[in-house]
Specification:
Elements: H1 16-21, H2 32-94, H3 101-126
Helix pairs in contact: 2-3
Length: 131
């Protein structure tokens, strides 16, 4: 244990002039091991950034493929529903399909709301507004 009068500790604080006076040479920069570790750390960061960018690219590619697939499907579902509504209206009007007016209105109204809501929600998810 050092005494309080020791020039190195000077009451618990390190006296830097005493350290420099001992002849210990200070380096002007990092040693080779520190530089090597810094280079390795930089390479690891660059690899992590590259992996992150590859994942982002893959995610964007997957989104694009899903958009193509589901946009086509939702389009044809909507077209099919509109054709079915047209057929029901024409057949009911021509007398080929005998349904009560309330049933036709309920079928067309509720079905159309469901299909159009599905169309809106899927297209809103697949094609979000850009920031």
């Amino acid at each position: 244990m050092r005494k309080r009068s020791d020039p190195v500790t000077n009451g618990g604080l390190v006296d830097l002039t005493a350290v420099n006076a001992t002849g210990i040479a200070r380096q002007s920069g990092p040693d080779t091991q520190t530089e090597s570790e810094a280079d390795q750390l930089e390479q690891d960061r660059a690899r992590a950034d590259l992996v992150n960018l590859n994942l982002q690219n893959r995610s964007l590619f997957d989104d694009l493929e899903a958009r193509k697939k589901f946009a086509t499907r939702i389009f044809w579902l909507t077209v099919g529903w509109l054709i079915a509504v047209l057929v029901i209206v024409v057949w009911s009007g021509a007398g080929w399909l005998r349904l009560d007016t309330k049933i036709v209105l309920g079928l067309i109204g509720s079905g159309s709301v469901n299909v159009l809501t599905l169309f809106g929600s899927v297209t809103g998810y697949l094609f979000p507004k850009r920031k």
